[in-house]
Design brief:
By secondary structure, the protein is an alpha+beta fold. It is 70% helix and 13% strand. The chain has 6 helices and 3 strands, in the order ααβααββαα. A 3-stranded antiparallel sheet has the order 1-3-2. The longest helix has 23 residues. It is elongated and about 55 Å long.
Length: 133
C-alpha cells in the first residue's frame, strides 16, 4: 500500500496546470466528469463542510474555472458547473497525470509492464463495481 500511495502522490504532483490545490483539483475533476452539482451535494461528495466548499468554489469562480447558477428545480439551491476554461484545465491536468504514469510504466521491465497493463484496468473495474454497490 505504501507503493500505491507513493505512486498516487507522484502522479498528482506532476499535474501542475493552474496551480490548483488537491481539493480544487478534486472538485474540478468531479464537475468535469459528472457535470453540475448543487453546492451542498458537491461538499458532501468531496467530504468537506459546506462553508469550506463555498470558499473553494468562490476561488475557482474567480479563476474562471466554474460558475454558479440558481438551481431551476429549487430556487434556494445553487448549482456549480465547470466552465470551458475549467474543462481545459481539467483535461490538461488529466493528460499530465496520464503522462506521469506512462513515464513510470516505461521504466519497468517488460514483464512488469504487462502486469501493470493487466492490473490497472482490473483495479478500475473493481472501483467502478464498488461505487455501484
Amino acid at each position: 500500500m505504501i507503493a500505491w500511495e507513493r505512486m498516487v502522490r507522484y502522479v498528482r504532483h506532476r499535474a501542475t496546470t493552474a496551480g490548483l490545490s488537491t481539493a480544487a483539483s478534486s472538485a474540478l475533476g468531479r464537475l468535469g466528469r459528472e457535470g453540475p452539482y448543487r453546492l451542498t451535494e458537491l461538499a458532501r461528495a468531496e467530504g468537506v463542510s459546506q462553508p469550506n466548499m463555498t470558499q473553494l468554489v468562490t476561488r475557482m469562480e474567480r479563476a474562471g474555472l466554474v460558475r454558479r447558477s440558481a438551481d431551476s428545480t429549487d430556487g434556494r439551491g445553487v448549482l456549480v458547473e465547470i466552465t470551458e476554461t475549467g474543462l481545459d484545465v481539467f483535461r490538461q491536468r488529466r493528460a499530465e497525470r496520464a503522462q506521469a504514469l506512462q513515464e513510470l510504466i516505461e521504466e519497468l521491465t517488460e514483464p512488469e509492464q504487462r502486469a501493470v497493463n493487466v492490473a490497472l484496468p482490473a483495479l478500475a473495474r473493481a472501483i467502478q463495481d464498488h461505487r455501484g454497490s
